[in-house]
Design brief:
Elements: H1 6-26, H2 39-50, H3 71-74, H4 82-93, H5 99-119, H6 122-128, H7 131-146, E1 150-169, E2 172-188, E3 194-197, E4 203-214, E5 223-229
């Protein structure tokens, strides 16, 4: 039997120790490791994904909305109903129209109009009302002021708001909203005596308002064109 010299044994032991340390640090292969990163392959994959499937993309012509894009209309009005047909007609004329966003805007406008009328704020009313409705509101304010009367109002909130009508009249879109709100309101005479309403009681108010906008206009704002109070 031949004996290994000391130097050979030393290097053999050192090799085993180094192997064990590397194994501890690097671990074992499990078969689930990620493949090594290849920048050229990755770039090619990104470029392939970025390529359109066709060379030509057809854009909808102005005034046309694809059938599949009426989801937001169908969410507020059942397909096949006159209301749904009216809302689709409006969206065809103005692809940016969204019933839910319109409803949110109408609720904000409702509060502004109610409070501006109570305060006699003609400037704010003029920007929110059609000419005919504005003239009617201003006449009522002037009549109230001529008698020295004032209105004290506090807007509590809107309990419910629904779109109940929609149609195109030429290039003008009309949307009718039924709003149920709560309001504290009292009319005082020139001596401060309450002659109508109540300064503390909360009253439920039901209104049916119609807003309109010319779809050809660059002005995105809608204006109140008709009002009706429900009993």
């Amino acid at each position: 039997m031949e004996y290994l010299d000391f130097g050979t044994i030393f290097f053999f032991v050192a090799a085993v120790v180094i192997f064990l340390q590397l194994r501890k640090v690097l671990g074992r292969r499990t078969g689930n490791e990620r493949p090594p990163f290849n920048p050229y392959t990755r770039t090619a994959e990104v470029e392939d994904k970025a390529k359109p499937s066709d060379n030509v993309v057809s854009l909808p012509r102005r005034g046309e909305v694809k059938e599949s894009s009426f989801e937001k209309v169908d969410a507020v009005a059942k397909p096949g109903t006159p209301l749904n047909d009216g809302l689709r007609a409006i969206q065809n004329a103005d692809p940016s129209f969204e019933p839910a966003k319109f409803l949110d805007g109408s609720k904000m406008a409702y509060e502004m109009i109610v409070m501006s009328f109570a305060d006699g704020d003609r400037k704010t009313l003029k920007s929110l009302l059609s000419r005919e409705v504005f003239d009617g509101f201003v006449a009522a304010i002037a009549d109230r002021e001529s008698r020295g009367e004032k209105v004290q109002s506090s807007f509590v909130g809107i309990n419910k708001a629904d779109i109940i009508g929609a149609e195109m009249k030429g290039t003008e879109s009309h949307v009718t909203v039924r709003i149920v709100s709560e309001l504290i309101s009292a009319t005082l005479d020139k001596n401060g005596t309450v002659i109508d309403g109540d300064k503390e009681a909360v009253a439920e108010v039901k209104d049916v308002w119609t807003f309109a906008r010319d779809t050809r206009s660059k002005d995105p704002n809608w204006k109140l064109v008709a009002t009706e109070a429900e009993d």
